[in-house]
Amino acid sequence: MAHLLGGENLTVQFATRTILDGVSVGLEEGDRIGIVGRNGDGKSTLMRLLAQRQTPDSGRVTARRDVNVGYLDQSDVLDADLTVGEAIVGDQADHEWASNPKIREVMGGLVGEVDWHANVHALSGGQKRRVALAKLLIGDDDVIMLDEPTNHLDVEGVAWLSRHLKSRWRANAGAFVVVTHDRWFLDEVCTRTWEVHDATVDPFDGGYAAYVLARAERDRSASVVESKRTQLVKKELAWLRRGAPARTAKPKFRIEAANELIADVPEPRDSVSLSKMATARLGKDVLDLENVTLNYGGPDDGGRPLLENITLRLAPGERLGLVGVNGSGKTTLLRLLNGEITPTSGRLKRGSTVQTAVLSQEVTELDDVLDLRVIEVIEREKRSFNVGGKDLSAGQLVEQLGFTKDKQWTPVRDLSGGERRRLQLLRLLVGEPNVLMLDEPTNDLDTDTLAAVEDVLDGWPGTLVVVSHDRYLLERSTDHQMALLGDGQIRDLPGGVDQYLELREATLSGKPSGNSSGQGPGTGSTVPALASSRQSAGETSSNSSAAGGSGSAGAAKAAPGPSEAQKREARKRLNRIERQLGKLAQQEQKLHDQMEARVGDHELLSGLNKKLQELGGQKEALEREWMEATETLS
Questions:
Q1: What value does the mean pLDDT of the chain take?
Q2: E strands along 281-329, which residues?
Q3: Which of 321, 358, 313 is nearest to 547 (CA)?
Q4: In sequence order, what E strands does 494-565 have?
Q5: Comparing C-alpha atoms, which of 203, 195, 209 is closest to residue 257?
Q6: How far is CA 374 from CA 362, 363, 453, 460, in A?
Q7: What is the pLDDT of residues 417-451, one digit of tens each?
Q8: CA distance to 192, 420, 582, 632, per residue, from 577 (Å)
Q9: Given the DSSP bridges, would you call strands 3-14 and 69-72 parallel, antiparallel or unpaired?
Q10: d(CA 423, CA 427)
Q11: Dist. CA 334–CA 329, nearest whole Å
Q12: Closest C-alpha to 267, from 458, 409, 549, 123
């Protein structure tokens, strides 16, 4: 692979702090690199150096002479006085850019629903992000650098961006570098990971999941004393290993290699125990929306309803994730549940023992404590807290979410956006609510902090409602998901986010959504989604219900059932496929054993990993065939 650009002995210092110390990295054609690390460790700094937007204190950046680099800044850099069309294509006539299929694809995927003639200053944060992305992606850059590209994007936008980046170049052409806290996105698009920490950069092969495993193995082999950090990594692995079939049906790394590491790690959540604790604290009734309709603008607005005749019942200990396009009413639904707004019709039924807490997107709740220090804010609420059956002091709890002993004495006004979000979440938790609602909680948080937040939420026994575009967080912290599709209705998603994307694709294309075959957006097949559906359907039906569109909306007329001959043939196929899957599992285990025995032989490991990927492809095809045969018998 040809060299594109790189950095040699890069050093950057801010005041008395060294951000990067003698770092050397290189970018080759075909590289798909994700950069991870704690907030403030130098991720964006490293990318700006490579893009030659910042000069290092020492060292140099080299680039091939003809390399073009496209850069998406984390902040909004669009000219606010331009229209959307001018911001993206400049003064090109419509027929000029419309004749280019690549530009049409980008326009349709990102700004199809944005007013072409609107001024940039009138756009929402999500719309501005889409416009900035579209402006970048219509170019022919050899290297694309993206700083938090998923900020303000909904689930659908993130899925489209992942598909675009995977198909933008052929396998060994072009390159991109991305800084993001979206772990699903990292796993989906990246083949290498750079971890920026302690003024250095450690490279890893694979996406986020592979990085988590490799980091755990590195820490174990080096006998790292950072016990809290290692425990969080192990808990992440425990969830990845024991998670839903949607994740394990198509592993992206040697998931079985984590078995020994996590043998002593309990399940991320003991659902039965948490449910019992939540019931004891909450009683049988929590929050119920019954036949609720809410018009745009509030109860007195006679326009089209934002929510129409919906019924939603939250059970004690329920963990619900909400997804939907921007403007579909997710935040409004949280405000309804919290009693902040009154529905146009219908009613909110609230349990007598319910105590709610909401983490808003803006985190303006800290404005009244800007002059206090972090530890003082928490101690004002409470001095001790119970997490997972253990009593923690306020200082210990603050440290668990990433505030070191020195940082605990920092005034709130001096905290970064991510640190303020962490502090406000802690402030809410120490108030001991029994219903917690989180509105886009991942904004401004790094991957390590997200893991710490999830660790705290795992042992929290109350009812949890999460609105987020972060698929990893939704799958990790909630037990089932529901969707607001922009039609005033709420729909259950037993197949998770994959099912939501299929529904959205079907809605936009005007076709009925399928549930047994075909390609889902952003996925190789529908097998994982269907497997997840089977697992979670029973839990979902017992925990929540959604009327007025929350069931099988617009179910098709029943088709005639299969004949007995077809059923016999399907049973034969099932038996054959199951035997083949058993053989593949044995072959996979042998390969894993060989890889474990030859950890230091990188050439051999590369060959074995290739064979493992081939087996994975065969397994995926057989699983798809198995599902089709099962559909015939059902």
A1: 78
A2: 287-295, 305-314, 319-324
A3: 313
A4: 546-547
A5: 209
A6: 18, 15, 17, 22
A7: 777 888 888 788 777 788 999 988 887 777 877 88
A8: 34, 53, 9, 15
A9: unpaired
A10: 6
A11: 9
A12: 458
Torsion of CA 78, 82, 83, 88, to 10 degrees: -50
Q: How far apart are CA 428 and CA 357, in angstroms?
A: 6
Q: Where does the pLDDT of residue 217 fall: very low under 50, low under 70, confident under 90, or very high at 90 and above?
A: confident
Tokens of 43: 């991720």
Which stretches does DSSP call E strand in 124-230?
A: 143-147, 175-179, 192-197, 200-205
Question: Widest CA span of the chain, in angstroms?
Answer: 78
Binned at pLDDT 50, 70 and 90, residue 176 comes out as very high
**Count of H-run helices and E-run strands, the chain:** 21, 21
The answer to whether the CB of 466 falls within 8 A of the CB of 493 is no
Pick the most confident of 245-249, 252-256, 505-509, 513-517: 505-509
Specify the 3-state DSSP secondary structure of 594: helix
506 burial level (CB within 10 Å; 0-12, 13-18, 19+) = middle
User: Could you give the CA distance from residue 549 to residue 503 in angstroms, rounded to a whole number?
Assistant: 13
Residue pointed to by tokens 């604290």? 281
The model's pLDDT over 263-308, given as tens digits with 9 standing for 90+, comes to 555 556 655 544 544 444 566 788 999 999 988 654 444 456 888 8
Element (H, E) at 216: helix 208-221
Tell me the residue length of the chain: 634
Spell out the residues 6+ positions from residue 132 whose beta carbon is closer than 8 angstroms to its own.
72, 73, 76, 77, 78
Q: Which residues touch 417 (CB under 8 Å, ≥6 apart)? A: 363, 443, 444
Task: Rounding to the nearest 10 degrees, give the CA dihedral for residues 611, 616, 618, 623.
Answer: 160
Q: Tell me which residue has tokens 């399928």.
A: 514
Q: In 3D, which of 117, 54, 31 has the Cα closest to residue 82? A: 117
Give the rounded distance of the alpha carbon of 315 from its chain centre.
25
Amino acid 28 reads E
Task: Quick: pLDDT tens for 532-589.
Answer: 332 333 333 334 333 333 333 333 344 456 676 677 777 777 777 877 887 887 788 7
List of E strands, 118-258 = 143-147, 175-179, 192-197, 200-205
Q: What is the CA radius of gyration of the chain?
A: 25
Can you read off the two tokens belonging to residue 35? 């950069």
Beta-carbon-side half-sphere exposure of residue 536 (alpha carbons within 13 Å): 28
Tell me which fold the domain 1-68+143-204 belongs to: Rossmann fold (3.40.50)
| Overall average pLDDT of the 309-327 stretch | 88
Written as one letter, the residue type at 369 is V
pLDDT of residue 556: 37
How far is residue 20's CA from residue 22's CA, in Å, rounded to a whole number? 7
Spatial distance between the Cα atoms of 590 and 588, rounded to a whole number of angstroms: 5
CB 42 within 8 A of CB 199: yes
Q: Which residues of 275-313 are buried (b: 16+ CB within 10 A; e: fewer)?
A: bebbeebbeebbbbbeebbbbeeeeeeeeebbbbbbbbb
